[in-house]
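Fold these two proteins, one after the other.
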Amino acid sequence: MEKRVGYAVTSFLSGVGFTVNALKMVYIAQDILERKDDVLVEIVAHEASHAAQGFWSDSLEQERTAYKTAARVMEDLKARGEASFGDRSGWLRMDDDAAEERVKKMGEHVHLYGEIPKKQPTCWADKIAMIRQLGFLIRDFIKGSNA
């Protein structure tokens, strides 16, 4: 079965991409498109991985897969001489536990990563986890707006 996902540029976000599989959409921040480095490729590959996984909620397991996918895409482009990205092969050398721990440590900057479960919820648990995670994102947005 073919899976279609839309991509949209938004000024609501800054410096990030965000996948909403419930809406079959990937959002990329406007400022990312203006950059001349590898960030756009990395974010699109990362978010495409989320879209392909198709889950509504997030997990350390899913983030690990997305970061490793982005690293694989970037290293492949570099090996074919189509880009001169910085080294992302560290993600590819990590075992799954080390990669998940690295994502968890990113929770200092991406607060949702500190709140998500290790294993990916499935079926109805996936939808319930999405509602919970949406609450964390709204909380962080409100905190950021009041800063």
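Now the second one:
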Amino acid sequence: MRNHQSSRWGWLGSSWLILASLAPAGPTLPASQAPEGKADADAIRAATQAKITAGTAVLAKLRQSLVAPPAGLAGPRGIPDRICAWSSRLTDAKLEAAATHDARVKVLSEALDHAKQLEPWLKELYEAEACGLVSEDLDIAAFHRADVEVRLLREQSRPN
């Protein structure tokens, strides 16, 4: 009798070993050709700022599409969830740019303020039956706010 586990996963395991063996074991550039640390920090800062700019634009468009859906969009289903997800991504990008503990606390405090503003806004739209939100959307916003609050409290409890 054949072992179903090995017959089903055998090719996957073999493929994984082959791919892993092709991955470089260390830096791909010799140390003498590696970019300088300052250039790396500047490039990281620029890329992080680009993430923040793009994330801010996505959030603005998602919020706008919630109250005024673009042509072809049937309704708001999933938009509050996407707003919360993109808010988290934007917060993560800002945290990457935050150099100090105080800066991280400020980023998370601002994220909590935005999350607290999102909840009543969605509730108002839900109660007005303005755009087809469902009660699940309110729960998503409440979860998002609680998640940001936990992240802030954890950051505040860390030593500087």
